[in-house]
Amino acid sequence: MSETATTTEPEQQKQAPSVARASGSMAIATIVSRATGLLSKVLLIAALGAEQLNTSYQAATTLPTMINELLLGGVLTSVAIPLLVRAEKEDGDGGESYAQWLISMGTLILGIGTVIAVACAPLLTDLFIADSPKANPALVTAFAYLVLPGIVFYGLTALLSAVLNARHVFGLPTWAPVLNNVVVILVLVVYWMMPGEITLNPVHMTEPKLLVLGIGTALGVAIQAAVLFPALKRTGFRFKWRFGWDSRLSEFGGLAFWVLLYVGLGFASMTVLTNVATHSDTALVAFNYQWLIAQVPYGVLGVSLLTALMPKMSRSAAHGDNDQIVRDLLFGNRMSSVLLMPFSVLMTVSGVAIGVAAFGFGRSGVSGGTGIGVALALSAFGLVPYAITLLQLRVFYAMKDARTPTYIQGLMVAARIGLLYFFLAVSEPEQLAVGVSLAMSLSFVFGAIVGQVWLRVRLGRLRTGFTIWTVCLTVVASALAFAVAKSVNWLVQNMLGLSNVVVASWVEVVVVTLIGLPLAFGLLAAFRVPEMKPAIDKINRLVRRR
């Protein structure tokens, strides 16, 4: 029975305001989370630098998130959460027993996986950095022992957030990562104030600064999970351990297989990427940091678009309305370009300034910030294809097809791995950060093309030419806008005569952003791009009101 059929009109009216109120809090929380996350990374590179110490830390802290995703994350998102919502609507106890079972079984799986991962930390280190000459295996292993317990807390955060969302509590799960970031910031401040340095040869597990950094990182994830328990209790949920097999998962066994395979391919991709990047002292740090910056506009704008379109596409797929799916896909592709292309061009033309402004001080220095900025500038073109690829994959999931996204993921991973080894062969160590970043962006361009062709075969005519025309308009508008912004920045820099590179970079970031972004969106409006019409109408209404 459909959701519409099982939800009465009064219930819909009652639920709508709570979701509307929550959306504002979620948007603010996303921005604050990105800002505090960026601040923690700024402090990290200032305290640890951009070379071997930070590279080892980055390699180790990647492990718990990837293993959690392999154990539970992908299946939880694609299989368990829909079942949780269904149990809430269909079970006599409002889905409480199923939620208890989900948390119990999830905790058991995560706990076993965490124990095995900690026991196998040296093997995971060998897998990730293998023959990388610039890595420090002993240090990566030491950090891994300390941060791998975070696997269980990452998983619990996802589990508890799912139960809270099913009970129409959206705000706190979105704010919880902010607490994690705050804890990491405090840990880094303590680390920076402590005397001495971490000994690299030999590495001692009892080193105070090593323990503070590793345990503090795991503590942040633990607090992120812990704050959700009181919120769950306030909803009236009573926890009780329940084990065994729930029959409802059997019908989704095939879906779970393809989701796990999808996640496994991603794990393989990141393993190769980490292995290749650690052939340089700075490549892994530079890649992770430029990726963090590039994800800010997508996290605030692209995710919101995807969240809004996914229910619409799912309803259209449920009714077999392929024409509406195509219209939603076309709208999503065009909006992704309109919203994100100006930011992509901003990072292309001022990527070096962004890198130096954000990371060009402390132990990193201007050279470390420049390395991050160059990698960002030369790979920012991948932002729009990345958003389009994720939207395309959601179309297949809306049609209850988990197999095709896995095939597309496999093709993308194969292309990415080939590119990674190509850049490893042709790049000098100091250029490897750019090579790794380019491999990632080019794989998303490839994925967007493959996804569009595959959807054309499945759904028929997609009006791809209309999407390409919008992409071209956004490129032209953004290029013109930021050409003007860079010219103004040149004049301002000459007038001020700034000698400090970091200060000059901050001036460029502020000037180019404040002039380039509004001008880019203004030109898109002047070009009469249809997706700009709602914003223009709202501005006109405000002006008329004045």
What would a concise description of this structure say?
This protein is an all-alpha fold and 546 residues long.
Characteristic terms for this protein:
0% strand, globular, mainly alpha, disordered N terminus, 20 helices, 546 residues
Largest sheet: none
Q: From the structure provided, what is the oligomeric state, counting identical versus distinct chains?
A: single chain
Share of residues in helices: over 70%
Structural class by SSE content: mainly alpha
Shape annotation: globular
* Number of beta-strand segments: 0
* Secondary-structure element series: HHHHHHHHHHHHHHHHHHHH
What separation lies between the terminal Cα atoms?
49 Å
State the helix count: 20
Overall pLDDT metric: 82
Q: Over the alpha carbons, how many angstroms does the gyration radius reach?
A: 24 Å
What fraction strand?
under 5%
* Poorly predicted regions: 1-23
